[in-house]
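tool=predict chain=A
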Amino acid sequence: MSMNKAVNQKEVSLLKANYFSKMKTSAKSPLKVDMKDAATGLIGGFISILVLAILTNATSTPWLMAPFGASCVLAFGVWNAPLSQPRNIIGGHFISTFVGLSMYHLFGNHPWTLALGVGLAIALMMITKTTHPPAGANPLVVIIGASSWSYLFTPVLIGAVVIVIVALIVNNLRSNRSYPTFWI
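tool=predict ok
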């Protein structure tokens, strides 16, 4: 074996060791259990999804989509986090759905359109400061569901607004919460 090859193998071994050592930790979860916060999450999530489910039943229009459940976790569970603010909930869902619908209507449902839709949605949410993790699923939802352009407004835009309205009401009932922490 040449000296050059031995050095390269040693460098690769060191890189692997350093890479995997980053995954070791003795730290404990910083999350705290607060029963009032849990109750707020229960009430906020319940009301948000109940309102959207009632609208679905009353109008024969789909007002629910799975990412809204995850949005409720952020809106009521970590209400003061930057990614939980109205701008992020509404803007993130709108932008990522628009991306997904564009991909679907331009190119159809293919593995690469699903992947590119999610990637573009993430990039555009970051560029517009509307990052909202649950919205990252929206391109998958609309492409797999072969959704029409109306999906952008019902359920996405109006549903996100409903979640924000409920978050404004429920979070601000608590004396130690002030929601939102920012609008723009």
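The chain has one domain: 35-171. The chain is about 65% helix and 0% strand.
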